[in-house]
Amino acid sequence: MTAAMTRAPVSAAEGGTSASISADIPRRMALVVLFAATWFMAGCGDGGGWSGLLVSGLIAQDGDDLGQVTYDRWCAGCHGVDGTGNGPASGYMLPRPRDFTQALYNIRTTASGALPTDEDILAIIDRGMPGTTMPGWEDLLSSNEREALVQYLKSFSRFFTPDEVPEPLEFSRATRSNADVIAEGERLFRELADCAACHGNEGRGDGESAPTLTDDERDLPIRVADLTENWLFNGGGEVEDIYRRLLTGLDGTPMPSLADVITAGVITDEQLWAVAHYVRSLSPDDPPGITEVVRGVLFEDAPLPSSIDDEAWDDVERTYLPLVGQIIVMPRWFDPRVDGVWAQAAHDGESVAVRVTWSDPNNSPDPEWADWKSQVISLMQPKEGDPQDEGPTPDQLVIQFPMEMPEGMERPFFLKGDTRRPVYLWQWQSDRDGALEGEARGVGTEAFQSEAQDLTVDASYADGEWQIMFTRPLVTEDEGDLDFVTGEAIPVAFFAWDGDNGESGTRGAVSSWYFLFLEDATPATVYVYPALAMMLTAGLGFLAVGSARKRERVGVEIESETENS
Amino acid sequence: MLDRFELRGIVAPTLMLLVMAGCGGGDGGGGEAGGDMAMDNPVDAATAGNIAGSVVFEGMAPSMDMIDMSEESTCAAKHSSTPMVQEVVVNSNGTLGNVFVYVKEGLESLMFPTPGPVLLDQNGCVYLPHVLGVMTGQDITIRNSDGLLHNINASPDINRGFNSSQPVNMETTRSFGAAEVMVPLRCDVHGWMNAYVGVLDHPYHSVSNSSGAFSLSTLPPGDYVIEAWHERYGTQTQNVTVTTGETAEVTFTFSPSMARNAVVPLGAPIDVHAIAEAS
Question: Quick one: closest CA in A to B189, which residue?
């Protein structure tokens, strides 16, 4: 008891010390960021601007305004010291950071055009905008800091006045979902509300109007949400979130509010819930977890899937693998269109088949997207001397393996290998038939055989989705090919390009190493042990039944005696 | 001049009452400013004058792009000839249409009753009219006559905007609480569809028509600054004096050499009588 009592204050003191140390580190980092930002701005040649920034930085250091201090430290790098969204890092982001002076907030609980509530702004600071570069700050800043930020953000816009308190809309309770509700939602989505005009028939953001959409703040190209990836919805992916977005719209974007449609009696509130349920149904029930392994299912008795739309694929587990922009080597790419691919694999002991599917709003090169493409390139490559739009470019997919199975955990460099450990590549692109096999010893050293010897590919594009299936014998005669082994984790990585998003070469989406695990042929023992177990169970079962019957007979006799009496 | 001062004498008490009643107009949001007030028009028609004129276009008319409506056959069918982008509309008589002409200065002391609703139609996947003038708080009935998905996305600077979906034939009513020239409207579904709404705290606005003519009627006598706004060629202003019973003639001239969205500085006051005699 005494020991515990004396220990407690000590640990509290330790806690206090460590807390003050950890609070010091960000403070120092903030200074570094501030000076870096200052240099950035100075480099732009706007003398008045940078001295102003320095002054405001000094004020922020000494001032009492927690909101301003927090903002200058953590937010100004992207959103700018003046809140206009033009911070030093903003040129690497699309959509650009929010311009707080315009007070156009996408995610609100208020009507279209109305200001957000304090809670709305806080919710975005806490959770971030998963479909953008805006992170969530709930675990990084204290609640005091986050609440002070809300007030500071509001101070950038003259629209927020003390008299005007935004009123949240009243939202009805979610209706129950079932197949009929979803079917009704789908009908409304496609026909009446025509959500498909922008979101596409299957909701992948490939609608007719998608290439021409711009935001309200800066008139820059803006992507349509891919409704099959609800974990990236900026306002949350559950049906309640979707319903709210339908009612409030996303101010500053082309997404309108459907509140007037209900007011005018065109659809009922219940029907709006049906649309929300349908949209929710387009994404998996649970967001894909982080998996390292793509399991290659063994087709022992059934034939390996022979085409992209072979029904046999329906039974093969899909693994979602996130991709990110390539930012290791120049030129970098901060705006990858492909944020992840779904991979499936199967083998029959002779050949391996890998099917990869991903959302892409266009089959590049698509002339409808030419303007989009040149705009994205000029927006994301702000420096002189960076590559410019070099004409139509295709969509591409590359699957990368080590050229030889690595010993232990030593794998080639994930970005196209290195001189010591080369990689073996499968390549497909949308403007050419067939697939290529190649090898690389680092970025820029890719060499492809003019014609794939052993690799075949089947590709299809429909409703904003690419499906690519590669097939190859497990073992080939070619020296440069990896021989696939079963029962071992084979390193695999994925690269994807959307040509109409300005992607080619090093400007594309990449993954780190994952593993392809081809199931072993089932060993004989697997059949023997269950059979033995079954026999044993059956034997024991007979014994048990026998003894039970004996007892039952006795029981029946007793019962009949009782009835007679 | 005297007339004007007399008028102010009448108006001032009314104004005071209105201000005290809290009907300040305000910025942003509210569409009800003055709407419920049984406000009388402060202008005495007997002493009023008018402004009329036209917008001349000098030089070669720029060729406008054709609108590709092939994806919207319903809309395409409503046009007898290929619809063209409405940005620059040069009329057959060499005048310029869709120029918003309004009183920019000279009415500051007056308050006007809010007129009834105006119609902004979406018909054939274009806004009709392309340029529209309203008063603060005046209802704009936005109609979808196409029966296919439009969204009306207003992105003003001074007012708060809105973005409303209209997937079928229906009407939506909106208004703007603060004066703003101009509020851009667009349909994101149909990238070519846009319109401009000029919001003023008085009713003296006009849009040059298919013969380039505009008119501002029943103005209190006095000195005014008139502005002409064009979506590509920017704004121009002229000083105009209105006298009782007279129609002051004003001509604005736009030409393609004008820089995009140029602001032509305020010119010397124009002697309207001299212009009238000359013509």
Answer: A209
Query: What ipTM was reported for this prediction?
Result: 0.77
Is B190's CB within 8 Å of A113's CB? no
The CATH number assigned to the domain holding B251 equals: 2.60.40.420
pTM: 0.80
Can you point out the beta strands (E) in B145-261? 150-154, 162-166, 170-174, 180-186, 194-200, 205-207, 213-219, 222-230, 234-242, 247-254
Per-residue pLDDT of chain B (279 residues; tens, 9 = 90+): 334 444 444 444 443 333 333 333 333 333 344 444 557 788 888 999 999 999 999 988 888 999 999 889 999 999 999 999 999 999 999 999 999 999 999 998 899 999 999 999 999 999 999 999 999 999 999 999 999 999 999 999 999 999 999 999 999 999 999 999 999 999 999 999 999 999 999 999 999 999 999 999 999 999 999 999 999 999 999 999 999 999 999 999 999 877 655 555 444 333 333 333 443
Contact assignment for B172 to A266 by CB distance below 8 Å = no
Report which of A28, A67, A36 is spatially closest to residue A53, judged by C-alpha positions. Answer: A36
Range of the domain at B219: 2-278
Give which of B140, B143, B160, B187 to mutate to test A binding, by max A Cβ within 10 Å.
Answer: B160
Range of the domain at A356: 293-518
- Chain A: give the shortest CA distance to residue B278, in Å: 47
* CA distances in angstroms from A157 to A435, B100, B157, B242, listed in the order given: 54, 29, 11, 40
Do A31 and A75 share a domain, yes or no? yes
Q: Are residues A498 and A528 in the same domain?
A: no
Inter-chain CB proximity B164 and A112 less than 8 Å: yes
Domain total in chain B = 1
Instruction: Count up the domains in chain A and report the number.
Output: 4
Widest CA span of chain A, in angstroms? 112
Contact check, Cβ <8 Å, B151/A254: yes
CATH number at residue A28: 1.10.760.10
Whether chain A has a CB inside 8 Å of the CB on B188: the answer is yes
